[in-house]
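Async update (no meeting this week)

Hi team, since we skipped the sync, here's where things stand on the single-chain job. The sequence we agreed to prioritize is pasted below, unchanged from the tracker. I ran it this morning and attached the output directly underneath so nobody has to dig for it. Comments welcome in thread, and please keep replies under the output.
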Amino acid sequence: MGRTIDQDVHAAFVEFKAKEDDKCMSVQCIYCQQIRAKNTSRQKQHLLECPGLQNNPNAPRPEPSPEDRIGAVNGFRTPSVSHTSNAPLSNGIASGSTPIQGLTNGTSMPPQGGNTTPTQRQPPKPNKTPKTTPGSSLPAPPLDDVHAAFVEFRAKEEDKCLSVQCIYCNQIRAKNTSRQRQHLLECATYQNVMKESIPANNLLHRFDEGDVARSLALPTPTLELDFRMSIKVNPKIGVGSGLFGHRDWVSIVGGQWAGRWGKGIVIVSLSLSLLDLCGDVVLMARQPGGQDSQLVVKDLATHSDASYLLQTNDDPPAYITARHKGWRSGPKEVLERLNDPTVADTVPANQYKFRMTVEFETGDERYAFLNTCLWMASGSRRTGEIIYDAYRVG
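Output:
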């Protein structure tokens, strides 16, 4: 008489293949989520020791009935099988059928290929819908973080497939990068750790729990030195007191620049005022090529808003309009020395702060990429000259 595999054992496990190229199947217990190799005897033994099953009194037990017992409890039983086939086999199973299909003990069994279990013993299936977690707005973790979040191990020495355990919630999963990443997206402990690692959540004040802005991970901008600028200026002209402070006007008369993407000069504009015409010679008057409008407040901190024109060394050259805005601040006594032309060049740049943003605009296709860039600059104020390093924000 042929023996059938205990249906309770099969119903308690979900089969899966850890990798597409794996030859062996793995199973996961639906009660405790532990992963085992697909082996009926070991699955049977696991259920006898499974704490999750013991805590579920309504779950079917894999113990065979007394009349079907064969020696020790081994997960198999001998059902009473009857058939009506005209060509019975010696083991009592009709030709062309499987042992499960030949059962006539009052329970209608589905075909084995359907991956279903008897209706009266249908176990709860794992929920495959994505879980909604407070950190669901976090991006998918990169591959390095996925690998770092799991510890690999071999459940048994003879197992061919490796398993992994999440270091945040201790759950065991098959070694599969896609499933490990999906697990981290649903792991509440991991999500909480990632939220705490968001810099904005370490500020003195933070968003309320549950707010999207509390759990949204944002990239940190980078700064990369892109070019150095030297701007020649005339002595400042005091305009007088305004609504917000003292106004100064500084005209830009030239300069130069050099960096990663080019080199050139700060040019002066040409006013096409005809002064004299001698044959084919046209004389033109030169006007300053830019200006810096400055606002000085009570503590001598100075706001700078400058516009000027750049020319590249290309042939033909490209023209780029530049604008920088920022503040020059520091101790009042240092700023007093900085405003004194006789000693300004002796003041080290690290004794005050001269920080500004820089933006470019050009219609030349060769330098069109500059139109969407942003720079943060750190500068030095000298007599007749402003020098700054510009760092592109990435």
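Quick observations from my side:
The longest strand covers residues 246-259.
The longest helix spans residues 40-49.
Reply here if anything looks off.
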